[in-house]
Amino acid sequence: MSWYEGASLLHHLETVYIAADRNLIDPRLPVQWVVRPKSAAFPDYRGYAGTIAGGVFRRGRCARRTVGPVYDHHRDRLLRRAYR
Questions:
Q1: pTM (2 decimals)?
Q2: CA 29/CA 65 separation, integer angstroms
Q3: What are the residue ranges spanned by the domains of the chain?
Q4: How far does Cα 54 stand from its chain's mean position?
Q5: Is residue 79's pLDDT more than 60?
Q6: HSE toward the beta carbon, residue 41, CA cutoff 13 A
Q7: Is the dihedral of CA 21, 49, 27, 57 positive or negative?
Q8: What is d(CA 36, CA 17) in angstroms, rounded to the nearest whole number?
Q9: CB burial readout 49-81, b (16+ within 10 A) else e
């Protein structure tokens, strides 16, 4: 591009300064799946599954839940079926 005189995007991405790329204080586990087997032994059990995104997890530590954007795959599938 003759009009652009700056560094290339690849050069910028390879040389950009990242101040703190490792956060070991705030554990993060984005929930990707809620497991609810609904068995007779555990009728109200909810397990949370996801990929650990950062921090350190230790047995016995309290967990804090925060709510972020939610995408309901089942609802989306129903809406797509309804509007065909």
A1: 0.43
A2: 10
A3: 23-82
A4: 10
A5: no
A6: 1
A7: negative
A8: 43
A9: eeeeeeeeeeeeeeeeeeeeeeeeeeeeeeeee
